[in-house]
Amino acid sequence: MRLGIMAARERTPMPQVRAIEDAVACYADSRVPVRIYRPTATGPLPTVVFFHGGGFVLGSVELMDDVARKLCRDIDAVIVSVDYRLAPEHPYPAAHDDALTVTLWAIENVAVLGGDAACVAVAGESAGGNLAASTTLALRDRGQALAAQLLIVPGVDMARDVAALKRLQRDFPMLAPQDLEDIVRLYMGDRMGDAEHSPPSPLRADSHAGLPPALIAVAGHDALCAEGRAYAECLAESGVPVRLLQFDDMFHPFFAFFEASSSARRANDEICREFSRLLRGQSSR
Q: Could you tell me which residue ranges the Alpha/beta hydrolase fold-3 domain spans (predicted)?
């Protein structure tokens, strides 16, 4: 899979950014590899910590290089892409811990990154959306606020009713209900009981009050669509400013398919445009 993606990338023009740097985020006793993308814009910029998708078992900063580049270019923000540890070799809470480590590091080093200290945000797709959501909850509990969160086709309930999804007898491209069962088993490892609680299930947190403004994007042909919508409703009921974008003709995970599909590109462009507005206090909510 990795070789196929890399081979296709060699034939595809990559979104251009000003600079790319591989680094290691160090906070307390933790060290996590990251890749930093800087746009052509100058001055203190929004800084976005980005978590790739892949069901907690696949993906890397290299595989998602094109996605991070496009985010950097289209949002005009410093992007810190996180190479978090993957299951099953590193089950929960490894990925969550890495996500929190890098976000704390980014907050502490925002000036060095070229970012605006008042505008640090998180973003993630699929499993990365889970990590972004759980990170905002962890930071809130520490008394630290982020500027915004972008959750793209997020999986926010590791104790979801997979049997109910199977009974729908729908074709969910790229992510079948059985895949969701496998993801939970591999990610949670011997801590399956924790799946019914936050952090692994942000939807099940005791409180969602005090979280940063959110942009949530869901896809109509995605097994995770309902829980993404449910999370948006949960945030709104808790007084969190939230905007939900639903792309009825899209599948999971369309955001990374912007070069292969014109529809996916239009959806990707809209998400980037709206998140840029949210970061700069111009949300069209």
A: 48-255
Q: Domain for residue 122, yes or no?
A: yes
Task: Answer for the pair 39, 73: CB distance below 8 angstroms, yes or no.
Answer: yes
Number of structural domains (the chain) is 1
pTM score of the predicted model: 0.94
Q: What is the pLDDT of residues 262-284, one digit of tens each?
A: 999 999 999 999 999 999 985 44
Q: Confirm whether 284 is domain-assigned.
A: no
Range of the domain at 169: 2-279
State how far the Cα of 154 lies from the Cα of 217, in Å rounded to an integer.
8
pLDDT tens track for 187-237? 999 999 999 999 999 999 999 999 999 999 999 999 999 999 999 999 999
Q: Fill in the amino acid letter for 206.
A: D
19-27/115-125 β-pairing: unpaired
The residues carrying an active-site annotation are 126, 222, 252
